[in-house]
Amino acid sequence: MPKLSATLTLISSVILGIGGVWIAYNVDMLPLGASMNAPIYDELYRVLFIIGSILFIGMTALVIYSLIQFRRKPGDTDDGINLEGNITLEIFWTAVPAIVVLFVGLYSYDIYDRMGGMQPLMHDHSAQMDNQAERLWGGIGSGPIETASSNNSSSLPIELTAMQFAFIFHYPKEDIITGELHVPLGKEVNLKMESKDVIHAFWVPQFRLKQDVIPGQPTILNFTPTKTGNFPIVCAELCGPYHGGMRSNVIVEEQEDFDTWLRENSKETV
Amino acid sequence: MTISLEPRNSPPERLQPTGWLKYLSFSLDHKVIGLQYLVCGFLFYLIGGSLAGAIRVELTSPLSDFMPREVYNQVLTLHGTIMIFLWIVPVVNGAFGNYLIPFYVGARDMAFPRLNAVAFWLIPPSGLMLITSYFINGAAQSGWTAYPPLSITTPAAGQIIWILSVLLLGGSSIFGGINFIATILKLRRPGLKLMQLPMYCWAMLGTSILVVLSTPVLAGTLILLSFDIVANTGFFNPSLGGNVIVYQHLFWFYSHPAVYIMVLPAFGLVSEILPIHSRKPLFGYTTMVFSIMGIVVLGLVVWAHHMFTSGTPPWMRLFFTIATAFIAVPTGIKFFNWVATLWGGKIALNGAMLFSCGFIINFVLGGITGVALAQVPFDVHVHDTYFVVAHFHYIVYGGSVFVIFSSIYHWFPKFTGKMLNENIGRLHFILTFIGFNLCFAPQHWLGLNGMPRRVAEYDPQFQLINQISSLGALLMALSTLPFLWNIFQSLLYGEEAGDNPWNALTPEWLTSSPPPVENWEGEAPLVLEPYGYGRRDSIETQEQKK
Amino acid sequence: MTSIVPQEQSSESKKNLSTEEHEDFRLFGLIAFLIADGMTFAGFFAAYLTFKAVNPIGPDAIYELELPLPTLNTVLLLLSSFTFHRAGKFLEKDEAKQCQRWLLITGVLGVAFLISQMFEYFTLPFGLTDNLFASTFYALTGFHGLHVTLGSIMIMIIWWQTRIQHGRVNKENKFPFEAVELYWHFVDGIWVVLFIILYLL
Fold first, then answer.
1. What CATH number matches the domain at B32-545, 3.40.50.1820, 1.20.210.10, 1.10.760.10, 1.10.260.40?
2. What gap in Å lies between CA B297 and CA B302, rounded to an integer?
3. Predicted ipTM of the assembly
4. In terms of CB atoms within 10 Å, which end of chain B has fewer, N or C?
């Protein structure tokens, strides 16, 4: 009998494990990934989804099974068995979650590092680490690993000013001011953001990136788009009555198209 | 030092209101105060629920067309504030804590009955003040988090009233916390050791420690915020040299523990309900106690995971990621222990049991998304989106509110002496469970795909899912009807419950239903094994020997 | 904050009341409250220190705080803690007259602190809304001053209640005395921390 139940437990755990992986690979809840961050993010998401599905389905199954299997028969007024605990079991289910959590923590540290979260901010200005630079805080992707080593001048600096209820982008080299963000494909963009009034947040779901835009506190966000297209920019921090309407677009285009756009708009502003 | 204290100087018996009038009086009886908290909280729940309904109606279409945008923000602010400060916190702490803790420690009342009554009577006026602010000059519209500078720039009157009422509610909460700590640690019946107390006492002890340590910080922060609004100082106003991030740190130093203030007592209540309805001892008492204390300690050092996108240095992000994720360990222990409590029991499928099991399932999902949200790289995508909305509703509604309903089904016979109708109870559970999951499960998808929270208008591609969610909300609203019907029907015509309808061992069942003033006619029973199911005979002989 | 223990309904309940006599835990409750109160100050201190670290005020806005007056204030408060303690010693010995005298001195020291604090406020070169540092300075000292004001009032009440040999506060019923004393020491302790953080650091 104990042998049978052990076998059953083993079989159901294996089914559960496979089921969890199957679900994580077949239920896709994420939007299109369009930045260098996105595949790394999706990898983390998948791992979390696998662990989460196993745990959730397992616990739910246990509860429902107990409710059916151990339901009280009519007329039965006796107590159940007097089982007050089991040290081995309790140690087991303290240790296993601790290990899983530790694994998840280390893994997400690795992901964070690969996204560039641990890169020192403003590496190109390391010489002038004055007060101003110290107060810059970066979001994730403040320097993707592929481009961090390469020449920094290849990145495209853009300044973002957020206000109630719009995003204003400024291209310092060409001195273009626009409400829609145009960026070239495959080039690192360096967004320097500051808010004029209240806290806003710059979020592009397809880039898997978000950073608050804070008054009196410049923040930076780096990203490298990897797909052409038109993606929404969403304000994700309650900023007033028109918060829901504070949306814009980021248009990722081929380098030539982007250059054309730059040229046309510089002409207009000149 | 043992001293004899001055005699009770409350008015003589004949001057105190009797019958239902005593529930409107400044009663010092902990049972009356507990029920006052419960009924008052439930009334606010109905108001908060209507506000949630208004939000869901607005979100059935992608345009802001149901109410003006300013009103929408007021509604969501009021909804959050009412549900947290006037429904869940007062009910899981104040209502059940006041009713049960004196029984559990073998006392005739709380340690400071008058302070207790004051703590309760702070709640209705501040709640009414909060709600009437809507009719005066518009309520606060910066969300329940009241982040500056938004809270400084929105109309001042509503924000100041909001601050005042949250301060009063915080004060009420602190008074309650002090009272619980003193009652549990100091008013225990002689011969009753801490490790023999029912689990709810431990949960309330942990919660009260969190209340006493963290609520004052919120009070201080809100005082500074009110100076910014009224006196034109610049603590959190960047245009005057202030710093908005400092507000967020101080705010979340309270408001993350506030989550544990809402769920730890729920954990305790479930630990009381499950053993009784599955007729088995609570599995792993000692590990349960340690996990509560572990949650209390960790709960105080994880606040900044609410601020991963607001500009925090990398080391801080990592520290708070790891600390937050580790809360899953003690929490996990509790869930495994509960399932082990069910395992091999003789489970009654009644309202109390079903809601508790619904709680376990919902909370596991909320916990999983919680661990995911603790990971910085994951959080930067879904922070401040509907994913977070879904997550915390799984925690506070699927967790705490399910437990509140479970506890009402469980203790209603003790409160009133009447049984509830279990069939209507099951119907209530099924409607609530389906409605809840229909409402909030799709919101995970919404968040992942790009819908931010607190918006009145959104990308039209999300309309269908939002309508499904609103349908779930409608079901949740409807599920309140059988519940209310059940309550009134049972109050008037319910079956007599008798002293101990569940055949339970915890002390509150060893007296009449409803219990007399001072709790017991004779000496308070000494219950050393509140979970001794399966070996009742030996316990009863022990009791008799004493 | 009075605890009520059913004792009067003695005839029928005396036989069964287990909680008839128990420890006086009112001071315990007060300590819990003071911990909570201390956390409010801790929040303010944390805010002040963070502001100082993250938002340094411009060089033109730095105001040097004068030290003599706050040092005098520190001495006043520490002295008052000592005199309160003396008063407690005399209460213990049941010498109401002496106790009352020391209480009066304590109260006067408290009021002197408040006057000196007011004087400092009026002589400072900055006002509440001048800059972040000024605002935090006034918030911290003001919140502490509020505590001193309440404490002084309570000391005066205790002083009034000890005026006769066996008044409301006496050797047998000294909880009000002990409570105010504990509170007063707490307020003094906070001042020392505040003095170090605000004036010396």
1. 1.20.210.10
2. 10
3. 0.90
4. N
